[in-house]
Write a structure and sequence with these properties.
Chain lengths: ~325, ~325
């Protein structure tokens, strides 16, 4: 398999009135072509910010560290994403090679422009299609994602569509430019479970059909289990565990991942007590020294947890974890 | 003394659509719902958006007008007919029935200190005789919700989601209610915090003898906290049973579909058999017969013409023409 996008040592801070806030720290991962990668974490863990930097889409007060590197491999060559500056250059990643689906489909469509017009507009921007072809491609895409009566829907506004339908239209729009990477930021969170199941099935079908890479951002481990091949667990801007989805869910190694899975109410065992991860996620202004999870960890092994940032320990070829517990095992 | 705190029968909430003299249409948000909530229970209400669960909760708090049917409240001290309630009695009911909101970020005023936020219901309802008494009650409930004196002096922006939700809970409970409607109270929280708030609600229920109506779209949360569950679809109650019975053997095809739609933590578990097509119809444009017939894989002619009534068997109610037949089918 060939790599699609490589993220190396991504560190991202935001300049604010209260000083520099670290949102992402030393994050590295590689996504292969045709692979679905889950990015899991709670609010404030930096998962959305990480995804946005792949499209160089963060606000202007974002400061990338000099070591940060994001390399995108397209059919026409490699692109150093963070060096792109002008809107023209950025078009390659924004909507060209990379598309994004957002959480709230109502907020992502312009309310006063028809769905069809918005779809055609982006096709005209990113390809050399004529208006007529763009329209027929759009209608065909709407049909592909299971929107019945696509010609009529094409001329409707976002508010005329139901939540599930809007999210399907959003997916159709994201896929119509034929991107090689799709970023889905909590695409099913705003949907009801029965609709969520439909959208997950649709996305699975589309992966096998179009063969693009997908980064699936979610806080729901169940959704990740059903969609992703590999998963990265983030906490307070760092990747704490990384591995194949089966491994990470069945055999979680980082105390945070273990806590997350234990906190999930499970339908198989109604008598099991709910065990919260103690405490709250610290504010990014008060990032703990040493391991970022040390304020809530129940398995602190000693001084090093408070003072030293844990190295990434490889447990086997595919599964790695950043925790002092496993340091000896790795050495 | 009766065992049920809330008893509603044939309860409906209809909203007229369109203004002026001629009301063209009725939006039936809740239609002909009968439920009984036992004292001291944790009663779960489940359904997708648009199913009417929030409206039902508000109707029982008398926060929206009841269009038809009856609803009674009886806590042993007082008994009220919610339809008739007004004046001093309504004011008293407000102290006895309270609501915890979904979004702890939107529910708390950013300009008030936590102490003032929690004290406000006491002051508005005139429940205390002076500042000293107010302070004491605020401190007492705050301590139960694990908020200390230092927290009371601060403003909401300084708190995390879980802490904010504990402030909302303290505010709802400060007037000493018996009946609390928790509307999606953990939906906005992260998983690691959610369990903490759920455990707190259970603990408060024990300590203060509360009765909860817990509205949620998350079935696994409901399964773990509630002792009785009711499932709603398009304003109708379609199934209700003790939690264990419902989760072991759901009878309504919609409930079954809801269960199978929950994404499983097991990556190899592929529950494709029961996936539902389509979406919940608009409440202004309801299908004839069974409300679920447009999405039900088992619908036959009778489902399209006649609305099923709620049938009770073994303390498990279900509104479906074919449930017995379908249950036998699975067993065979």
């Amino acid at each position: 398999m060939t790599p699609l996008i490589e993220v190396e040592n991504l560190t991202l801070q935001f300049r604010t009135d209260e000083g520099l806030i670290t949102a992402v720290e030393d994050v590295s991962f590689t996504l292969m072509k045709g692979e679905v990668m889950g990015l899991v974490g709670e609010s404030g863990s930096g998962k959305s910010v990480t995804a946005k930097s792949l499209m160089h889409l963060n606000a202007r007060n974002a400061v990338y560290s000099p070591e940060s590197r994001i390399t995108l491999h397209t059919d026409t060559g490699t692109v150093d994403v963070l060096s792109l500056r002008t809107p023209r250059e950025l078009n390659v990643v924004r909507g060209g090679a990379i598309s994004m689906i957002f959480q709230e489909p109502m907020a992502s469509f312009a309310p006063a422009i028809t769905i069809g017009k918005q779809m055609v507009e982006q096709l005209l921007l990113h390809s050399d299609m004529s208006k007529g072809t763009a329209k027929s491609v759009s209608v065909e895409m709407l049909d592909r994602v299971g929107i019945s009566d696509a010609t009529r829907r094409f001329d409707q506004y976002a508010f005329e569509l139901s939540g599930g339908m809007r999210q399907r239209a959003m997916i159709a729009m994201a896929l119509s430019t034929n991107p090689s990477l799709l970023i889905a930021d909590e695409p099913t969170t705003a949907l009801d479970v029965t609709i969520q199941a439909q959208v997950i099935d649709l996305m699975k079908d589309l992966v096998s059909e179009f063969g693009m890479g997908i980064i699936f951002i979610t806080h729901d481990l169940g959704v990740v289990a059903q969609t992703a091949d590999r998963v990265n667990v983030m906490y307070l801007g760092r990747i704490v565990e990384e591995g194949p989805v089966r491994e990470v869910i069945r055999n979680p190694r980082h105390p945070y991942t273990q806590g997350l899975i234990a906190a999930l109410p499970k339908l198989e065992d109604l008598d099991a007590p709910l065990t919260p991860v103690p405490g709250d996620i610290p504010s990014p202004l008060e990032r703990p020294a040493g391991c970022v999870f040390n304020t809530r960890c129940s398995q602190v092994v000693g001084e090093e947890c408070m003072a030293l940032v844990p190295m990434n320990c490889r447990l086997d070829e595919t599964h790695s974890v950043a925790c002092h517990i496993y340091r000896e095992a790795a050495e | 003394m009766s065992r049920s705190l809330i008893q509603a029968s044939g309860l409906s909430v209809h909203f007229p659509i369109g203004s002026g003299l001629f009301v063209k249409q009725l939006l039936k948000a809740v239609d002909n719902v009968s439920i009984e909530i036992e004292k001291g229970s944790f009663f779960g209400l489940v359904g997708e958006s648009g199913s009417g669960k929030t409206t039902l909760g508000r109707a029982l708090l008398k926060a929206v007008p009841i269009s038809a049917g009856t609803a009674h409240y009886d806590d042993g001290e007082v008994a009220y007919d919610l339809q008739e309630l007004d004046g001093a009695e309504l004011k008293d009911y407000r102290t006895r029935a309270q609501l915890i909101f979904q979004d702890p970020y939107a529910a708390l005023s950013p300009r008030m200190t936590v102490r003032d936020i929690i004290a406000e219901p006491l002051e508005v309802m005139g429940l205390t005789k002076g500042r000293a008494e107010t302070d004491e009650r605020v401190r007492e409930i705050a301590a139960r919700c694990r908020l200390n004196l230092e927290h009371l002096r601060r403003f909401p922006h300084a708190f995390s989601g879980g802490q904010r939700q504990r402030i909302s809970i303290a505010r709802a409970l400060v007037s000493g209610p018996k009946f609390v409607v928790a509307d999606e109270s953990v939906a906005a929280l992260d998983v690691s915090i959610q369990a903490d708030v759920l455990n707190l609600l259970k603990q408060l229920q024990d300590e203060l003898g509360l009765t909860f109506m817990f509205i949620s779209h998350d079935l696994s949360v409901v399964a773990h906290t509630c002792d009785h569950v009711a499932v709603m679809y398009l304003g109708r109650l379609i199934e209700t049973a003790p939690t264990r019975k419902l989760f072991e053997a759901p009878r309504h095809p919609y409930t079954k579909a809801l269960f199978s739609a929950i994404p499983s933590l097991d990556p190899d578990d592929d529950k494709t058999a029961q996936k539902l097509a389509g979406e919940i119809p608009s409440p202004t444009d309801q299908p004839p017969g069974c409300k679920f017939q447009t999405r039900c894989p088992h619908a036959i002619d009778i489902c399209r013409s006649q609305e099923p009534a709620l049938e009770t068997e073994d303390g498990h109610d279900v509104a479906c023409h074919r449930w017995k037949e379908l249950m036998n089918l699975v067993a065979a």
